[in-house]
Write a structure and sequence with these properties.
By secondary structure, the chain is of the alpha/beta class. Helix content is 35%, strand content 17%. It has helices at 3-15, 25-29, 48-51, 54-59, 61-75, 82-93, 107-111, 176-187, 207-213, 240-249; strands at residues 19-23, 97-101, 117-118, 121-128, 135-137, 163-167, 191-195, 217-222, 234-237. It has a 6-stranded parallel sheet with strand order 3-2-1-7-8-9, with helices on both faces. The protein starts with a helix and ends with a helix.
Amino acid sequence: MDLDALDTLAARMRSAAAIVVLTGAGISAESGVPTFRGQDGLWRRYSAAELATPEAFSRDPDLVWQWYRWRRSLIGRAIPNPGHLSLARLQERAARFDLVTQNVDGLHQRAGSAAVIELHGNIWRSRCARGCGFVLDETTPAAGSELPGEGGAAPACPCGALLRPDVVWFGEPLDEGRIDLAVRAARNCDVFLAIGTSALVYPAAGLPLIAAGAGALVAEINVDDTPLTPHAGLVLRGKAAEMIPAIEARL
């Protein structure tokens, strides 16, 4: 753990008027949430890339929903880790704190974070596939409760259409309103933390570059190098569940 980098980052955060945090799959993986890609993504004989598409839902909505119920059952067993909990406490202490995430698991909200900008949606929400505007919010199962199985048909919307998971599938654009909020926050922050993100998926990967271009200190917290590493003002190598509490302890 680079103590000098931690002290430098903490000092900048103490004086910052606005802080932005971007989180990716790395912070959720530390809570035991699979990435659902590669071997982690295999379910029966299908991969995530085969099921998380509008075309797959059109062909077999029941199959897609069985996969998402299986995913919910795995995510429902995960609990927020110390990194999630520290970010929630930091939000309460900062003058302006925007949390942007590429994750769909809802762990930030379960940790106590508010007004999370979910770029890729939330697996615990469903919305009308026809677009009538209906959204169903389902709470994450409490620890020890019975989790949903895989079976059953695709749920129906009150308007008669099917419901679909309120997540961004392969080939779909991100919600422009959420992108605008994230870009605006990046342009107006003093410190930008990129935590556990591969920095490969745009537009999220462009947010720290926007912040750096506007004069913010960009700090990368990750176990590995990423395309962001050469552009970061500070690089902290380690797990989010360890690094974020270490930063919090210095504030």
